[in-house]
Amino acid sequence: MSNTSYDTYRENVAGRADVEDTPELVAYYKDLDRLKAGALWTVANKIEPWQPKSDSVPVLWRYRELRDHVLRSVSLVTPEKAGRRVIYLNNPGRQEVSAAVGWLYSGLQVMHPGEAASAHAHSSSALRFIMEGRGAYTIVDGHKMTLGANDFVLTPNGTWHEHGVEADGLPCIWQDGLDIPLVNALEAGFYAVHPDLSQAVGYPVDDSVSIWGAAGLRPQNVGWSKPYSPLFKYQWEPTYEALRKLSGAREDNPFDGALMHYTNPVSGGHVMATIGASMQLLRPGFEGKAHRHTGSFLYQVAKGKGYSIINGQRFDWQERDIFCVPSWAWHEHVNASQSEDACLFCFNDLPVMEKLGLYREEALADNGGHQPVLSQE
Protein backbone atom coordinates (compact mmCIF):
# COMPACT_ATOMS: atom_id res chain seq x y z
CA MET A 1 0.00 0.00 0.00
CA SER A 2 1.48 3.36 -1.03
CA ASN A 3 1.92 6.17 1.49
CA THR A 4 -0.82 8.18 -0.19
CA SER A 5 -3.33 5.36 -0.14
CA TYR A 6 -2.33 4.48 3.44
CA ASP A 7 -2.92 8.06 4.60
CA THR A 8 -6.31 8.06 2.88
CA TYR A 9 -7.14 4.71 4.46
CA ARG A 10 -6.03 5.91 7.88
CA GLU A 11 -8.01 9.13 7.79
CA ASN A 12 -11.17 7.80 6.21
CA VAL A 13 -11.51 4.11 6.97
CA ALA A 14 -9.32 2.41 9.57
CA GLY A 15 -11.14 2.26 12.87
CA ARG A 16 -13.22 5.29 11.97
CA ALA A 17 -16.92 5.62 11.37
CA ASP A 18 -18.40 7.12 8.21
CA VAL A 19 -22.03 6.02 8.43
CA GLU A 20 -24.82 8.33 7.33
CA ASP A 21 -28.07 8.29 9.24
CA THR A 22 -31.03 6.70 7.54
CA PRO A 23 -34.55 6.38 8.94
CA GLU A 24 -33.88 2.71 9.53
CA LEU A 25 -30.63 3.41 11.40
CA VAL A 26 -32.19 6.17 13.54
CA ALA A 27 -34.98 3.77 14.53
CA TYR A 28 -32.33 1.12 15.25
CA TYR A 29 -30.40 3.49 17.51
CA LYS A 30 -33.59 4.27 19.44
CA ASP A 31 -34.21 0.57 19.94
CA LEU A 32 -30.68 0.14 21.31
CA ASP A 33 -31.08 3.18 23.56
CA ARG A 34 -34.18 1.67 25.15
CA LEU A 35 -32.05 -1.37 25.97
CA LYS A 36 -29.34 0.89 27.45
CA ALA A 37 -26.97 0.00 24.65
CA GLY A 38 -25.56 1.75 21.60
CA ALA A 39 -23.72 1.29 18.32
CA LEU A 40 -19.97 1.82 18.65
CA TRP A 41 -19.65 3.46 15.27
CA THR A 42 -21.75 6.40 16.46
CA VAL A 43 -19.16 7.34 19.12
CA ALA A 44 -15.91 5.73 17.92
CA ASN A 45 -14.45 8.91 16.46
CA LYS A 46 -14.98 10.69 19.78
CA ILE A 47 -13.86 8.06 22.28
CA GLU A 48 -10.82 6.84 20.31
CA PRO A 49 -9.12 9.91 18.77
CA TRP A 50 -5.93 9.62 16.77
CA GLN A 51 -4.20 11.64 19.46
CA PRO A 52 -5.17 13.26 22.80
CA LYS A 53 -7.71 16.07 22.54
CA SER A 54 -7.85 17.77 25.92
CA ASP A 55 -11.01 19.53 27.04
CA SER A 56 -8.76 21.78 29.13
CA VAL A 57 -7.59 25.06 27.64
CA PRO A 58 -4.39 26.96 28.46
CA VAL A 59 -5.09 29.54 31.19
CA LEU A 60 -3.00 32.15 33.01
CA TRP A 61 -4.25 33.17 36.45
CA ARG A 62 -2.59 36.48 37.35
CA TYR A 63 -1.88 36.75 41.05
CA ARG A 64 -2.17 40.54 41.08
CA GLU A 65 -5.75 40.17 39.82
CA LEU A 66 -6.76 37.37 42.18
CA ARG A 67 -5.02 38.46 45.38
CA ASP A 68 -7.54 41.08 46.52
CA HIS A 69 -10.42 38.67 45.96
CA VAL A 70 -8.62 35.98 47.95
CA LEU A 71 -8.06 38.40 50.85
CA ARG A 72 -11.64 39.66 50.64
CA SER A 73 -12.92 36.18 51.50
CA VAL A 74 -11.48 36.63 55.02
CA SER A 75 -14.19 39.19 55.85
CA LEU A 76 -16.93 37.10 54.27
CA VAL A 77 -16.45 33.57 55.66
CA THR A 78 -14.56 31.91 58.51
CA PRO A 79 -12.50 28.73 58.16
CA GLU A 80 -14.98 27.01 60.50
CA LYS A 81 -17.98 27.91 58.35
CA ALA A 82 -16.33 27.41 54.97
CA GLY A 83 -14.48 24.23 55.92
CA ARG A 84 -11.60 25.45 53.79
CA ARG A 85 -11.49 29.11 52.77
CA VAL A 86 -10.22 28.64 49.24
CA ILE A 87 -10.71 30.34 45.89
CA TYR A 88 -10.38 27.57 43.33
CA LEU A 89 -9.07 27.90 39.78
CA ASN A 90 -11.70 26.87 37.25
CA ASN A 91 -10.56 25.92 33.75
CA PRO A 92 -13.25 26.90 31.20
CA GLY A 93 -13.02 23.45 29.62
CA ARG A 94 -13.26 21.56 32.94
CA GLN A 95 -15.88 23.48 34.89
CA GLU A 96 -18.10 20.45 35.39
CA VAL A 97 -15.40 18.83 37.56
CA SER A 98 -13.93 22.03 39.08
CA ALA A 99 -10.50 21.24 37.66
CA ALA A 100 -7.69 23.67 36.88
CA VAL A 101 -6.39 21.36 34.16
CA GLY A 102 -7.12 17.74 33.26
CA TRP A 103 -7.91 15.86 36.45
CA LEU A 104 -6.00 18.25 38.73
CA TYR A 105 -7.53 20.76 41.15
CA SER A 106 -5.91 23.99 42.34
CA GLY A 107 -6.98 26.75 44.71
CA LEU A 108 -5.62 29.69 46.67
CA GLN A 109 -6.15 29.43 50.43
CA VAL A 110 -5.82 32.33 52.85
CA MET A 111 -5.47 32.27 56.63
CA HIS A 112 -4.87 35.07 59.11
CA PRO A 113 -2.69 34.89 62.24
CA GLY A 114 -4.28 32.74 64.92
CA GLU A 115 -6.59 30.92 62.50
CA ALA A 116 -6.55 27.15 62.12
CA ALA A 117 -8.51 24.75 59.95
CA SER A 118 -9.82 21.55 61.54
CA ALA A 119 -7.94 18.31 61.03
CA HIS A 120 -9.31 16.07 58.32
CA ALA A 121 -8.37 13.24 55.97
CA HIS A 122 -9.44 12.35 52.46
CA SER A 123 -8.71 10.00 49.59
CA SER A 124 -7.20 12.74 47.46
CA SER A 125 -3.49 13.47 47.58
CA ALA A 126 -2.66 17.12 48.25
CA LEU A 127 0.20 19.58 48.35
CA ARG A 128 0.68 23.21 49.38
CA PHE A 129 3.05 25.75 47.85
CA ILE A 130 3.48 28.86 50.00
CA MET A 131 3.03 32.15 48.17
CA GLU A 132 3.31 34.84 50.85
CA GLY A 133 3.10 35.53 54.57
CA ARG A 134 4.83 34.33 57.73
CA GLY A 135 4.00 31.78 60.41
CA ALA A 136 2.16 29.18 58.32
CA TYR A 137 2.29 25.57 59.45
CA THR A 138 0.91 22.18 58.50
CA ILE A 139 0.50 19.14 60.72
CA VAL A 140 0.48 15.72 59.01
CA ASP A 141 -0.18 12.64 61.16
CA GLY A 142 1.32 14.41 64.17
CA HIS A 143 4.33 15.87 62.30
CA LYS A 144 4.35 19.68 62.36
CA MET A 145 6.09 21.66 59.63
CA THR A 146 6.78 25.40 59.69
CA LEU A 147 6.46 26.97 56.25
CA GLY A 148 7.96 29.94 54.41
CA ALA A 149 7.57 31.42 50.95
CA ASN A 150 8.15 28.93 48.10
CA ASP A 151 8.27 25.99 50.50
CA PHE A 152 6.40 22.92 49.28
CA VAL A 153 4.59 20.59 51.70
CA LEU A 154 2.80 17.25 51.23
CA THR A 155 -0.46 16.07 52.74
CA PRO A 156 -0.71 12.57 51.22
CA ASN A 157 -3.99 10.74 50.79
CA GLY A 158 -5.36 9.15 53.93
CA THR A 159 -3.27 11.25 56.33
CA TRP A 160 -4.75 13.43 59.05
CA HIS A 161 -3.74 16.99 58.28
CA GLU A 162 -4.52 20.54 59.30
CA HIS A 163 -3.19 24.01 58.56
CA GLY A 164 -2.92 27.28 60.37
CA VAL A 165 -0.97 30.47 60.97
CA GLU A 166 0.75 31.22 64.25
CA ALA A 167 -0.71 34.08 66.30
CA ASP A 168 2.43 36.20 65.83
CA GLY A 169 2.60 35.58 62.08
CA LEU A 170 1.35 37.51 59.06
CA PRO A 171 -1.57 36.69 56.73
CA CYS A 172 -0.60 33.75 54.55
CA ILE A 173 -1.70 32.65 51.09
CA TRP A 174 -0.72 29.35 49.52
CA GLN A 175 -1.68 27.27 46.53
CA ASP A 176 -3.44 23.98 47.19
CA GLY A 177 -2.95 21.24 44.60
CA LEU A 178 -5.02 18.05 44.70
CA ASP A 179 -6.14 15.16 42.51
CA ILE A 180 -9.80 15.53 43.59
CA PRO A 181 -11.15 15.31 40.01
CA LEU A 182 -9.19 12.11 39.36
CA VAL A 183 -10.32 10.45 42.58
CA ASN A 184 -13.91 11.45 41.87
CA ALA A 185 -13.67 10.10 38.31
CA LEU A 186 -12.53 6.79 39.81
CA GLU A 187 -15.45 7.00 42.28
CA ALA A 188 -13.07 6.40 45.17
CA GLY A 189 -13.39 9.53 47.30
CA PHE A 190 -13.77 9.47 51.08
CA TYR A 191 -13.60 12.40 53.51
CA ALA A 192 -13.40 12.39 57.30
CA VAL A 193 -13.11 15.01 60.05
CA HIS A 194 -10.85 14.24 62.99
CA PRO A 195 -12.93 13.27 66.05
CA ASP A 196 -11.07 15.86 68.16
CA LEU A 197 -11.07 18.46 65.34
CA SER A 198 -7.32 18.81 65.83
CA GLN A 199 -4.43 16.43 66.34
CA ALA A 200 -1.65 16.39 68.86
CA VAL A 201 1.88 17.14 67.69
CA GLY A 202 3.73 13.94 68.48
CA TYR A 203 7.19 14.68 67.10
CA PRO A 204 9.77 17.49 67.16
CA VAL A 205 8.81 20.34 64.85
CA ASP A 206 10.19 19.84 61.31
CA ASP A 207 11.43 16.36 62.23
CA SER A 208 10.85 15.01 58.71
CA VAL A 209 13.38 17.52 57.35
CA SER A 210 15.86 16.66 60.09
CA ILE A 211 15.56 12.93 59.39
CA TRP A 212 15.11 12.78 55.62
CA GLY A 213 16.22 16.14 54.27
CA ALA A 214 19.95 15.59 53.84
CA ALA A 215 20.60 15.32 50.09
CA GLY A 216 22.10 11.98 49.12
CA LEU A 217 22.02 10.57 52.66
CA ARG A 218 19.61 8.04 54.14
CA PRO A 219 19.28 7.55 57.91
CA GLN A 220 20.21 4.19 59.38
CA ASN A 221 17.50 2.05 61.03
CA VAL A 222 14.65 4.39 60.10
CA GLY A 223 12.02 2.42 58.25
CA TRP A 224 9.45 3.74 55.81
CA SER A 225 7.07 1.64 53.71
CA LYS A 226 4.27 4.03 52.85
CA PRO A 227 3.56 4.91 49.19
CA TYR A 228 4.55 8.55 49.60
CA SER A 229 7.58 10.51 50.67
CA PRO A 230 8.47 10.68 54.38
CA LEU A 231 9.95 14.12 53.69
CA PHE A 232 6.78 16.15 54.04
CA LYS A 233 8.45 19.55 53.55
CA TYR A 234 10.73 20.60 50.68
CA GLN A 235 12.39 23.94 51.41
CA TRP A 236 12.93 26.69 48.86
CA GLU A 237 16.50 27.71 49.72
CA PRO A 238 18.19 24.31 49.19
CA THR A 239 16.00 23.72 46.14
CA TYR A 240 17.12 26.96 44.50
CA GLU A 241 20.74 26.26 45.42
CA ALA A 242 20.53 22.81 43.82
CA LEU A 243 19.03 24.29 40.65
CA ARG A 244 21.82 26.89 40.40
CA LYS A 245 24.46 24.17 40.81
CA LEU A 246 22.80 22.01 38.16
CA SER A 247 22.54 24.97 35.81
CA GLY A 248 26.23 25.75 36.26
CA ALA A 249 27.37 22.16 35.81
CA ARG A 250 25.73 21.21 32.52
CA GLU A 251 24.08 22.51 29.39
CA ASP A 252 20.43 23.50 29.57
CA ASN A 253 17.75 21.05 28.63
CA PRO A 254 16.52 22.63 25.37
CA PHE A 255 12.90 22.54 26.55
CA ASP A 256 13.06 23.13 30.29
CA GLY A 257 16.42 24.65 31.21
CA ALA A 258 17.58 23.18 34.55
CA LEU A 259 14.73 20.94 35.69
CA MET A 260 14.72 18.91 38.92
CA HIS A 261 12.00 16.66 40.31
CA TYR A 262 11.08 16.56 43.96
CA THR A 263 11.58 12.94 45.00
CA ASN A 264 10.85 10.41 47.69
CA PRO A 265 14.22 9.99 49.47
CA VAL A 266 13.47 6.31 50.14
CA SER A 267 12.59 5.19 46.62
CA GLY A 268 13.92 8.01 44.45
CA GLY A 269 10.49 8.11 42.80
CA HIS A 270 7.73 10.68 42.81
CA VAL A 271 6.68 12.31 46.08
CA MET A 272 3.18 10.80 45.95
CA ALA A 273 1.47 7.99 44.05
CA THR A 274 -0.69 10.22 41.86
CA ILE A 275 0.96 13.66 41.93
CA GLY A 276 4.48 14.60 40.92
CA ALA A 277 6.21 17.94 41.41
CA SER A 278 9.25 19.75 40.05
CA MET A 279 11.10 23.03 40.04
CA GLN A 280 12.99 24.39 37.05
CA LEU A 281 15.38 27.25 36.57
CA LEU A 282 15.46 29.24 33.34
CA ARG A 283 18.72 31.13 33.04
CA PRO A 284 18.66 34.81 32.01
CA GLY A 285 17.63 35.03 28.37
CA PHE A 286 16.70 31.34 28.14
CA GLU A 287 14.46 30.56 25.16
CA GLY A 288 13.12 27.04 25.34
CA LYS A 289 12.11 25.00 22.34
CA ALA A 290 8.59 23.63 21.98
CA HIS A 291 7.53 20.12 22.85
CA ARG A 292 4.38 18.36 23.98
CA HIS A 293 3.63 15.38 26.18
CA THR A 294 0.77 13.52 27.75
CA GLY A 295 -0.21 14.55 31.25
CA SER A 296 -1.55 17.75 32.76
CA PHE A 297 0.85 20.31 34.24
CA LEU A 298 0.13 23.30 36.49
CA TYR A 299 2.89 25.88 36.93
CA GLN A 300 3.42 28.58 39.55
CA VAL A 301 6.10 31.23 39.04
CA ALA A 302 8.40 31.06 42.06
CA LYS A 303 10.88 33.65 40.81
CA GLY A 304 11.34 36.06 37.94
CA LYS A 305 9.28 36.89 34.89
CA GLY A 306 8.91 35.65 31.36
CA TYR A 307 6.41 34.07 29.08
CA SER A 308 5.23 30.73 27.75
CA ILE A 309 3.72 29.93 24.36
CA ILE A 310 1.07 27.23 24.63
CA ASN A 311 -0.58 25.98 21.44
CA GLY A 312 0.36 29.23 19.73
CA GLN A 313 -0.93 31.51 22.47
CA ARG A 314 1.54 33.68 24.43
CA PHE A 315 1.09 34.08 28.18
CA ASP A 316 3.29 36.65 29.97
CA TRP A 317 3.89 35.73 33.60
CA GLN A 318 5.56 37.12 36.71
CA GLU A 319 6.10 35.96 40.30
CA ARG A 320 3.17 34.06 41.87
CA ASP A 321 1.21 33.82 38.63
CA ILE A 322 -0.17 30.37 37.84
CA PHE A 323 -0.69 28.82 34.41
CA CYS A 324 -1.57 25.42 33.03
CA VAL A 325 -0.41 23.27 30.13
CA PRO A 326 -3.06 20.74 29.03
CA SER A 327 -2.13 17.26 27.87
CA TRP A 328 -0.51 17.08 24.42
CA ALA A 329 -0.33 20.89 24.09
CA TRP A 330 2.73 22.39 22.41
CA HIS A 331 4.54 24.63 24.90
CA GLU A 332 7.79 26.52 25.32
CA HIS A 333 9.11 28.74 28.13
CA VAL A 334 11.17 31.94 27.93
CA ASN A 335 12.95 33.95 30.64
CA ALA A 336 12.37 37.57 29.63
CA SER A 337 15.18 38.92 31.86
CA GLN A 338 18.78 39.18 30.72
CA SER A 339 20.09 39.37 34.29
CA GLU A 340 17.81 37.40 36.67
CA ASP A 341 16.89 33.73 36.94
CA ALA A 342 13.30 32.61 36.49
CA CYS A 343 12.01 29.59 38.42
CA LEU A 344 8.82 27.62 37.78
CA PHE A 345 7.27 25.28 40.32
CA CYS A 346 5.06 22.62 38.77
CA PHE A 347 2.78 19.84 39.92
CA ASN A 348 1.39 17.24 37.57
CA ASP A 349 -0.14 13.81 37.07
CA LEU A 350 3.12 12.35 35.71
CA PRO A 351 3.13 9.41 38.19
CA VAL A 352 -0.23 8.26 36.80
CA MET A 353 0.90 8.62 33.19
CA GLU A 354 4.07 6.64 33.87
CA LYS A 355 2.46 3.86 35.91
CA LEU A 356 -0.21 3.29 33.30
CA GLY A 357 2.31 3.32 30.45
CA LEU A 358 0.62 6.35 28.86
CA TYR A 359 3.45 8.89 28.89
CA ARG A 360 4.56 10.07 25.46
CA GLU A 361 6.62 13.09 24.44
CA GLU A 362 7.33 14.79 21.12
CA ALA A 363 9.55 17.71 20.09
CA LEU A 364 8.41 20.28 17.54
CA ALA A 365 10.46 19.78 14.39
CA ASP A 366 9.27 22.77 12.38
CA ASN A 367 10.38 26.42 12.51
CA GLY A 368 13.57 25.70 14.44
CA GLY A 369 11.57 24.15 17.27
CA HIS A 370 9.49 27.26 17.98
CA GLN A 371 5.77 27.90 17.56
CA PRO A 372 4.34 30.87 15.70
CA VAL A 373 2.52 33.18 18.11
CA LEU A 374 -1.10 33.34 16.97
CA SER A 375 -2.50 35.32 19.91
CA GLN A 376 -1.44 36.83 23.24
CA GLU A 377 -3.30 36.63 26.55
TrEMBL record:
One of its GO terms (molecular function) is dioxygenase activity. It comes from the Bacteria. Residues 108-174, 280-346 form the Cupin type-2 domain. Keywords: Dioxygenase, Oxidoreductase. This is Gentisate 1,2-dioxygenase. Pfam families: Cupin_2 (PF07883). SUPFAM superfamilies: RmlC-like cupins (SSF51182).
